Amino acid sequence: MHVLDLIARINNCVEELDFAAARMYMEANIDILNENRSRLKSNARELLEFLTKRMEAGQQPLTRKDMAVINAVNNYASKFDLRSLKVVIKDHTLLFMRHDIEAYLNMDARIILEGMGAIPKAAS
Description:
Layout: H1 3-15, H2 19-28, H3 30-35, H4 42-56, H5 64-79, H6 82-91, H7 93-96, H8 107-116
């Protein structure tokens, strides 16, 4: 894919609020985009800067499977389905040991998981 086509697709995705697709394009071509960041629109530039900082800090991006697990946990927590919640957490313990996992959880999931001891309690 040509650089200008890539930038046009990313700008279009950001305009349509399809951040998942924009993130996918950016992660696959982060070096090229950092060289041509002036051609990106401001929202796309902010997203690129965020992804670049996360990669420099050594944080691995979440996969589609990880996001599906997090969405399931959020749904189970909202419905207060503790049995299903425990099964999902037991099967994906490494995912919940990540330090950045709390940013992806809704408030119900955070409270329940903190109470269960699955994630550390937030400093108040």
